[in-house]
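Chapter summary example.
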Amino acid sequence: MSITPEEPFPSTDISSFFINVLCVLLMYGSAYLANTGAMLFGKWIPEKTGIPVIVIDGGRNYSDGHRLLGDGKSWNGLIGGGIVSGLLFMLAHKLWNSNGANAPLVDPLLYADSNDWFWLIESDDSGLIAAFTMGFVLGFACMVGDMCGSFIKRRRGLKREGDQSSEAPLLDTIPFAIAIFITSFILFDGQIITHHNLVEEILFLLLVTPIIHRLFNVIGYKFGLKDVPY
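The structure predicted for these 230 residues follows.
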């Protein structure tokens, strides 16, 4: 399916709607995978290399007696998640920058140029640097949203791992997805990833995020990156 640069992402029937959903998932998928990057940098790499894990809350408790965030939220994971997201945005830009507006492999920097704030330098690699910047910002937003969900879970007395965490699937998923999309529309307004024809598809993706998140957690569990598949 081809879409015109003048008015991309038409949603004339159910098939085109789900093609647009796939476009959104592919463009935002790198930011979603910041959670996987956080597991790599916050758990797997330290375990393999002995690099110390710096916990964000420093072990401090909130006034309710529960930890602010818990040991699962570290500076390693926060920064690492942003880096992985940035690298994946670079890869998407590199692979798809000649596709134009052909769905579903749409370059997330299709509308970007040197006038945008994240286009940091003018060089042969300026597009890749801009892609990394966009990806890092959205990946960082993902991790901040995830921490907000963790903070609320702690206030409810829910553990980070174990049976209790499975009782809060929305708090495990919706906060980071909302953080990604809010940040995107605030900081990347006018880019292809925030095109007005994709609003309904973005809302749909938000609704199915818990399912996608569970799938990635199962994969992470299979590869030994998580202690539990949720």
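To summarize the output: Residues 52 and 84 are 19 Å apart (CA to CA).
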